[in-house]
Design brief:
52% helix; alpha/beta; seven-stranded mixed beta sheet; Glutaredoxin; 12 helices
């Protein structure tokens, strides 16, 4: 049945290109592996090189999809498994509130969100279709020219058309996801999960047993929040430039700073990923006084990529539970700290 062979060849070639682009993109930008781990809200014990290994598997799948017989069949099954696993991870990350760039294609990536879920669902369906076709008819991609010959088989006219429609849907979903990622606000709050304890992977961060290095945004001077906590409690607010909820937090800080700093030293922290400057991280906002290179301190505290989040470090260097997530919880944390100030005067009403 030449029509089935045509369809399988088209799908195999397209998926080969897609997996090659994905794998090579990750390998070219392997230094961004940590950001992919964070965006997908994977556990802290997952190492960055896991992304590199996954990228190598994608490249091998891309090559194998250009083979024939059982090689293509095995590659199709592997592609389906990879696509299904990634879909599960993206759905999980979205439910945990992530809206970061996934790093799916290296530097050119979509943000975690509905469009990325749709894109990966289409990819799962496409790989499943290829698996089914390889069981129906032996596939030899080398015979691509022969596969495109006209046949008397009634299916020969329809199946390639169906395959083309599926490929078009895959292409649209890829570009739509990347476009949506560029315009989607980074401070998305999932309506079902406003950041309460137990929902996010940041709900139970480990105590700050090690150093928490940060930089002063104005001077570039390094300091260790853990060491500073030995002298005075530290209220550390992790925010992000351009984040709407973060602006609410900054307004609350301006309102309560005097009372808070009688009890704890206040740091408003912006994460800096490799390749970005401190000015890019703060967006030029002088209220973001502290930089966290590579988000190392946030990761040390067990925090995910969601912003804003607030952590109170006690004078023994431990994290006071629970971690505050979102503008409302951080406002409550700020009020609680301010209430301990000797000169605190609660506002009426």
């Amino acid at each position: 049945m030449l029509g089935i062979l045509q369809s399988a060849v088209l799908l195999s070639l397209a998926l080969s290109v897609l997996f090659a682009r994905s794998g090579v993109g990750k390998l070219r930008h392997w230094r961004s592996a940590e950001s992919t781990i964070t965006a997908l809200r994977l556990p802290a014990w997952v190492p960055g090189f896991a992304v590199v290994i996954f990228a190598c598997v994608e490249v091998l799948i891309a090559v194998a999809l250009l083979g024939n017989g059982v090689v293509v069949q095995g590659a199709a099954i592997a592609a389906f498994v990879c696509a299904a696993v990634f879909l599960v991870l993206v759905v999980r990350a979205y439910r945990l509130g992530s809206a970061d760039e996934c790093g799916c294609f290296g530097a050119s990536s979509a943000r975690v969100g509905p469009w990325l879920i749709v894109r990966n669902a289409v990819l799962v369906a496409t790989t499943a279709a290829l698996v089914a076709l390889t069981f129906v008819s032996p596939l030899n991609v080398v015979w691509f020219v022969r596969a495109l010959q006209v046949s008397n088989d009634p299916l020969s006219g329809w199946l390639p058309l169906v395959a083309a429609v599926v490929l078009a849907a895959l292409a649209v979903s890829v570009f739509a996801a990347e476009w949506a990622g560029r315009v989607q606000p980074a401070d998305r709050e999932h309506p079902e999960h406003p950041g309460h304890s137990g929902v996010s992977d940041a709900a139970n961060p480990s105590p700050a047993l090690g150093p928490l290095p940060v930089l002063d945004a104005a001077t570039g001077v390094a300091r260790d929040l853990t060491m500073q906590a030995r002298q005075k409690a530290q209220l550390v607010l992790f925010v992000q430039a351009g984040c709407g909820s973060c602006q609410q937090v900054l307004a609350k800080v301006a309102e309560a700073r005097d009372a808070v700093e009688q009890v704890a030293e206040l740091s408003v922290v912006a994460g800096v990923w490799p390749g970005r400057s401190g000015t890019e991280a703060t967006g030029g906002d002088e209220r973001l006084t502290t930089l966290d290179p590579a988000n190392a301190s946030a990761r040390q505290l067990g925090l995910g990529s969601r912003r804003p989040q607030g952590v109170l470090l006690a004078t023994d260097g431990s994290v006071v539970q629970p971690v505050a997530q979102g503008a409302d919880e951080i406002a409550e944390l700020i009020d609680a700290v301010a209430a301990a100030a000797p000169t605190f005067e609660p506002r009426e009403g």
